[in-house]
Design brief:
Layout (H helix, E strand, L loop, with lengths): L4 H7 L1 E6 L16 E7 L7 H6 L8 H4 L25 H13 L4 E9 L2 E3 L2 H7 L9 E6 L4 E2 L5 H4 L5 E3 L5 H16 L6 E2 L2 E6 L2 H8 L2 H17 L6 E5 L6 H10 L3 E3 L11 H21 L4 E2 L1 E5 L2 H4 L3
Parallel strand pairs: 2-3, 3-5, 5-9, 9-10, 10-11, 11-12
Antiparallel strand pairs: 1-2, 1-13, 3-4, 6-7, 8-9
Helix pairs in contact: 1-4, 4-5, 7-9, 8-9, 10-11
Length: 321
């Protein structure tokens, strides 16, 4: 629901990753920065065909339900009204404002949530029609995070579906669709001059390792799937693929072994991950467990880097609290 740049900066997860300083001139910037500061974009505020059919029929994407926010107590500020108005995120002029606001405040990379449901793309308009058609998009990098999570009917429109939490879309796909995805992201995105590449390798982030494994049936099949992806990336002229995973869930050694076997390049977080504890003592216990998890990864596989999450406010919830 990041639908104005102000919201993006407040509601995204930001991360810093140390970059190789080589001083080479590039199309998107004068010098490779010491740090990439990135903001997640939840690209829901435009009229997507699939979203229009089953989620938001009014033609403004998720703005539809944001406008329906209801106050729960006296003085509760609902519905929240965006400072820049209900702008559509697939409008290149809107995106130009986002880019200027981001780069003026030190954010030099956008990470777009990217979806593939029911044998086709979902919510691509923000990236394809908004960002990529913005006249100033050369000012910053971008990459995509394949949000391969499952979606319940009431997950993105509780007003329409109320208590109906039955499955609307599965995050896992099949081999045929995976081949289509690989070709699509290489041609549409990796070949863009400002697509983020670390050591020349396009960065491709994946939300759910569990659903990735479901896509291929087991861990061995997933290794073959990622090897296929890497080979297609190399055929396209890149040295390799930088595979990034979202390190969510409860830390355990099995997960570490999966990460090692898959040849993952880096880990990050989309949000705090795992159980949503209201008790701060329990949060501290979980945080310490995550520290041990990351320490274990670094010992077992020192080539896996951790891209640090330095600031986060959950973007969806901000509208409803």
């Amino acid at each position: 629901m990041v639908c104005t740049m102000c919201m993006c900066l407040l509601m995204c997860g930001c991360l810093n990753v140390q970059a190789k300083k080589n001083g080479e001139k590039e199309v998107r910037a004068n010098v490779v920065p010491e740090y990439y500061v990135a903001a997640y974009i939840w690209p829901s505020c435009h009229d997507d065909p699939m979203g229009h059919e089953v989620l938001w029929p009014e033609g403004t994407g998720e703005w539809e339900i944001i406008k329906k926010g209801n106050p729960r107590f006296e003085g509760h500020y609902q519905p929240k009204v965006p400072l820049w108005g209900y702008e559509l995120d697939n409008d290149p002029q809107v995106m130009e404002k986002w880019i200027d606001a981001a780069t003026d405040h030190g954010v030099n990379t956008f990470i777009f949530d990217w979806y593939w449901f029911n044998n086709g793309p979902f919510l691509e308009g923000c990236l394809n029609d908004g960002f990529l058609k913005a006249k100033n998009n050369h000012k910053m990098n971008f990459y995509i995070m394949w949000a391969d999570h499952d979606v319940a009917r009431n997950y993105w429109n509780v007003h329409r579906y109320k208590d109906d939490n039955s499955r609307l879309w599965d995050g896992a796909i099949d081999w045929e669709n995976f081949r289509i995805v690989v070709k699509r992201v290489i041609e549409q995105y990796f070949k863009q001059p400002n697509y983020l590449k670390l050591d020349g390798k396009p960065v491709f982030s994946i939300f759910s390792l569990d659903n990735l494994i479901k896509t291929f049936g087991d861990l061995e099949g997933t290794c073959k799937g990622l090897d296929y992806f890497r080979s297609e990336v190399k055929k396209a002229g890149f040295p390799d693929l930088h595979i990034q995973l979202i390190a969510g869930g409860v830390p355990n050694e099995e997960r570490v072994e999966q990460i090692e076997k898959l040849g993952v390049s880096s880990l990050t977080q989309y949000n705090w991950g795992g159980p949503i504890y209201e008790d701060y003592v329990r949060w501290n216990v979980f945080r310490n467990g995550m520290k041990r998890f990351l320490s274990l990864i670094s010992r077992m596989h020192p080539l896996v880097g951790m891209i640090r999450l330095v600031f986060l406010i959950r973007h969806r919830k901000m509208w409803f609290i």
